[in-house]
Amino acid sequence: MTQTETSQVEDVILELLELIEKLSTFSSFSPSPELDDVLGRISHICHQTQVSGAQEDEILSDPRIVQSIPTLRTLWAEAAGALEDDWARKILTAKDTDEAKSLLATYPRIQNYKTTIPIELGVISIVLQRFPKKVAMLGSGPLPLTSLSIKNHAIEKNHALDVLNVDIVPERIAASKQIFKLLGSEYDAILHFVSDASGTSLPDLKDSDAVYLASLIGVSNEDKVNVIANVARRMSKDSVIVIRSSSGLSRLLWPNLEMKDFSRISDLVEPALAAQPLSGPTKHSVVVLRVVG
Predict the structure, then answer these.
(1) Which of 32, 84, 95, 245 would bridge with 143, disulfide CB 3.0–4.6 Å?
(2) Which InterPro entries match (predicted)?
């Protein structure tokens, strides 16, 4: 790299370290102008910084960054959860279905879901050779936009589809139930379950054609692969697990799973299809694993 490129790498590293330190000082992740500023600057670095592949590798492999990644991912997940909690509370103040839908339409990243979900379902349908009949979302949260977008797409395309939302936090499952009830009777059949995706309480998933894992499940590649194994053992052969992965500097925020990561669980799953990057500012990829065990 040139001296200018090396200097740019160091500038990004120092700014990231400063922002991680600032993020760790917040006693609460309730939305505030100060928190929004820090999160916005981190997001800009991860999704919009114009650097070469070599510079990305230098940043991601720098010992200071490597040491800080687990902290950043943990804090980012907590902040993202708090943001969804806040939006869920806001939507639940709606007086009726129309107001709830109007509030939901103003969620900052709602368009990302509308763009990427049809692509993801297309990839899933290619692997299954049909549209799924039941989808489970693990780590669904209080504002289950993936489940909602999947259900809306199925309704639009006239596909019968059951949905199961699973989250470890009871309050978030309760909020999700209330939101779907508020949004209308077309979501009455959506089921909810409180469970840890990595634990023994995870429900039987043998009737789910496709199981989504939330991006923020698992701080490391090893953590995520362990969750995938736990999920696969509860699924039927030839069903699929859907993982949103990352590219570029967004790998700072969540693990970027590669084909080699699945080798130690090859008795349970095999990579079936991947599409990357998808549209949207985060440019995440989707990997579909087929259950073989």
Answers:
(1) 84
(2) Nicotian_synth, SAM-dependent_MTases_sf
Instruction: Specify the length of the chain in residues.
Output: 293
Distance separating alpha carbons of residues 217 and 250, to the nearest angstrom: 15
d(CA 258, CA 245): 9
The CATH classification number of 97-291 equals 3.40.50.150
Neighbours of 100 (CB within 10 A): 22
168 neighbors 195 (Cβ within 8 angstroms): yes
Read off the pLDDT of residues 217-245 as tens digits, 9 standing for 90 and up.
Answer: 888 889 999 999 999 999 999 999 999 87
CB atoms within 10 A of CB 227: 23
Tokens representing 75 are 């804090």
φ, ψ for residue 243, nearest 5 deg: -125, 130
Global pTM value: 0.89
Q: pLDDT (tens digit, 9 = 90+) per residue, 34-93? A: 999 999 999 999 988 888 889 999 999 999 999 999 999 999 999 999 999 999 999 999
CA nearest to 119, candidates 244, 231, 218: 244
Give me Rg for the CA atoms of the chain: 19
Taking Cα atoms as reference points, which of 191, 194, 144 lies closest to residue 171? Answer: 194
For the chain, the domains span: 3-91, 97-291
